[in-house]
């Protein structure tokens, strides 16, 4: 464990907590893409298959349970909670996210570190996470006024993977044989997808104006 | 490693 990865995990945790805070306290999911939440639930479900078979550390197991529990409960809230579901804008959240799942699965079957079920599922979860934010970014461009919590949620979600990139650089230089091209490239693609959001988020913070993405 | 499975990151 290194400071970059720990900071990345904490940032990821913060993004999940911000989203749960928004949904649980103000009972609203305005501006939140259900499709991105469903993709993330699938990412964690396919990435943490080793939850009960491989014990790495208490921290690792605890965080996996938190990410699994929060992602599925957020999907439940937006889909079934009688108040929250009313604020879900399904007419705007129209990204065909199923079109993301199949290509990621096919790619994982083709390009992986080892052709075993768990390794292919793990690779699939990496590719899927790289594109999981797309429905949310599309929804943000359609939603004129982005509320602070939603903006913070997306910012933290993008920042966590950027910190992971620093973690991979650190591990590459400190651990012999630590080479994971698949992880690195999908993590880089994921972070680059946030590039324009980060730009507008920083601009809105610097000029102290409401966050707005150009249509 | 854990029976060949070596992913220790979240």
Automatic annotation (TrEMBL), chain A:
GO terms for molecular function: ER retention sequence binding. Its main location: endoplasmic reticulum. InterPro entries: ER_ret_rcpt (IPR000133). PANTHER family: ER LUMEN PROTEIN RETAINING RECEPTOR (PTHR10585). The chain crosses the membrane at residues 55-78, 98-115, 121-140, 152-170, 182-202. It is a multi-pass membrane protein. It is found in: Endoplasmic reticulum membrane. This is ER lumen protein-retaining receptor. Pfam families: ER_lumen_recept. Keywords: Endoplasmic reticulum, ER-Golgi transport, Membrane, Protein transport, Receptor, Signal, Transmembrane, Transmembrane helix, Transport. One of its GO terms (biological process) is protein transport. Belongs to the ERD2 family. The keyword Transmembrane helix applies. Residues 1-31 form the signal peptide. One of its GO terms (cellular component) is endoplasmic reticulum membrane.
């Amino acid at each position: 464990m290194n400071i970059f990865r720990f900071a990345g995990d904490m940032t990821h945790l913060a993004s999940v907590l911000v989203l749960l805070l928004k949904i649980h306290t103000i009972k609203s999911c305005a501006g939140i893409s259900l499709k991105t939440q469903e993709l993330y639930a699938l990412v964690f479900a396919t990435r943490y298959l080793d939850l009960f078979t491989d014990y790495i550390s208490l921290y690792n197991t605890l965080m996996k349970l938190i990410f699994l529990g929060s992602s599925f409960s957020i999907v439940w809230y937006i889909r079934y909670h009688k108040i929250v579901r009313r604020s879900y804008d399904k007419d705007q959240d129209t990204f065909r996210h199923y079109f993301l799942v199949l290509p990621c699965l096919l790619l994982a079957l083709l390009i992986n570190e080892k052709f075993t079920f768990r390794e292919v599922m793990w690779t699939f979860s990496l590719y899927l996470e790289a594109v999981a934010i797309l429905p949310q970014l599309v929804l943000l461009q359609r939603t004129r006024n982005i509320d602070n919590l939603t903006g913070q949620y997306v910012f933290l979600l993008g920042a966590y993977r950027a910190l992971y990139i620093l973690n991979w650089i650190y591990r590459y230089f400190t651990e012999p044989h630590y080479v994971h091209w698949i992880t690195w490239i999908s993590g880089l693609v994921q972070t680059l997808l946030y590039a324009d959001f980060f730009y507008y988020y920083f601009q809105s913070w610097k000029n102290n104006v409401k966050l707005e993405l150009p249509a | 490693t854990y029976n060949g499975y070596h992913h220790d990151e979240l």
